[in-house]
Amino acid sequence: MNMVTMSKVYFVEAKDGIIENLEVLLEKAGVSNLTGVTAVKAHMGERKNKTFIQPSYVKRIVEVLKINGGDPFVTDTTTMYKAKRYTARVYYRTAFAHGFLPSYLDCPVIIADGLKDEGVQVNEQVEIAKSIYDSDAMLVLSHATGHSAASFGGAISVGR
């Protein structure tokens, strides 16, 4: 029999400042002390679209990880469907246009499956983007969104 375990959900008042409360949320979730090379997976948006976690939030998360000894980089993978994130080269342009710049975030921004769709075959059915596979830890930043291809999107990324 499978037992369902309920996830813990942490809430902060937006009026208290989301950026100011990110460190508290990360501590409560037990991820503020991730060490080693840490992939911070964040959807960096589609061209001309505003539905993504803003770079200022990602920057604060990177700061907290670095303060606690982590070596973070911000990452995502390309899409399976033909869109502006279908190739790493175009996705980099979109990410940078949306403010996900290494100079702003103070860490590398890496499209994890690389310029040539590099993955590591884990078994017959699963391939993991190389930069994520090579990481010591991964923190996934999710945003709830309706998605025309899957009805819900925001956390799971599948490369080609």
Written description of the protein model:
The chain is an alpha/beta fold. It has a domain at about 35-140: Rossmann fold (3-Layer(aba) Sandwich). Helix content is about 25%, strand content about 20%. The protein is built from 5 helices and 6 strands; from the N terminus they run αβαβααβββαβ. The chain has helices at about 20-30, 55-65, 90-95, 100-105, 130-135; strands at about 35-40, 70-75, 110, 120, 125-130, 135-140. The radius of gyration is 16 Å and the shape is globular.
Can you summarize this structure?
By secondary structure, the protein is of the alpha/beta class. It has helices at 18-29, 55-67, 88-97, 102-105, 130-133, and strands spanning 36-42, 70-76, 109-111, 119-121, 127-129, 137-141.
What features would you highlight for this structure?
single chain, 160 residues, alpha/beta, Rossmann fold, two-stranded antiparallel sheet, 6 strands, Ferredoxin, DUF362
- The residue-averaged pLDDT reads 83
Please tell me how large the radius of gyration is: 16 Å
Query: Which CATH C-level class of the domain at 34-141 is it?
Result: Alpha Beta
| Number of separate strands | 6
* Number of discrete helical segments: 5
**Percentage of residues in DSSP E strands:** 15-25%
Separation of termini?
A: 34 Å
Estimate the helix proportion, in percent.
25-40%
Strand order of the largest sheet: 3-2-1-6
- Largest sheet, strands/sense/barrel: 4 strands, parallel
